[in-house]
Amino acid sequence: MKNIKVCAFDAYGTCFDVNSAAENIAPKLGENWLSFSNTWRTSQLEYTWLRSLMKKHVDFWKITEDSLDYAMTFHKINKSLRDELLNLYKTLNPYPELKECLEKLKQKNIKTCILSNGTPDLLDHLVSNANIKNLFDDILSIEQVKVYKPDPKVYEMTTKKFNCKPSEICFMSANNWDIVGGGVFGYQCVWVNRNKRVFDELGFHPKNIIKNLTELNNLV
After folding, report:
1. Which active-site residues does the annotation give?
2. Domains of the chain with CATH codes
3. Which of 7, 56, 81, 185 has its CA 20 to 30 A from that of 73?
């Protein structure tokens, strides 16, 4: 990858493990905790897309609460666990290679940022809890534009912040629809395919695919 000035990271599923909230109390949730967690995540994403289409914006924390309520009802989870799950979502586990990846990018004098659906408070809490806040030059939330990914207004935030072209941004996401959004906008995209998934057919395919963030340093 050439002429990269900024490495922009999606947060949820890319830097932080979205299943870790449920996994941390798996004994309380039962043997189907992962299915429950997947329902929570899928509903969360669907709600962002639907609210963007309807132009009925609420912030990501409200969407996280609403999608959790749906998942708990669907899977018949005891509602007494609701507050505990929400608190755990504020401190999702970072992927183990994240910090070293960011440190190596800083050694190369490449700017770094998060570009996320999350609210500023949620994102600040995540990076502070993981002790990596100092490794990001900025944390960009869609709350600046009040619309969710993959709207082009979201990806434009990074070019405006760093005064660069889309092609000068390397964008990492584990979400293939997010990679499509960034790629169509003009980013050089890297799909973080941790689970050997098949890429969606949405008119764009990334040239670069990695299994984890450690492999990013072989590209940039």
Report:
1. 10
2. 6-17+93-218 (3.40.50.1000), 20-89 (1.10.150.240)
3. 56
Taking only the tens place, the pLDDT of each residue in 18-31 is 999 999 999 999 99
Concatenating the DSSP letter of every residue in the chain gives --S--EEEE--BTTTB-TTHHHHTTHHHH-TTHHHHHHHHHHHHHHHHHHHHHHT----HHHHHHHHHHHHHHHTT--GGGHHHHHHHHTTPPBPTTHHHHHHHHHHTT-EEEEEESS-HHHHHHHHHHTT-GGG-SEEEEGGGTT--TTSHHHHHHHHHHHT--GGGEEEEES-HHHHHHHHHHT-EEEEE-TT-PPPP-SS---SEEESSGGGGGGT-
- pTM beyond 0.70: the answer is yes
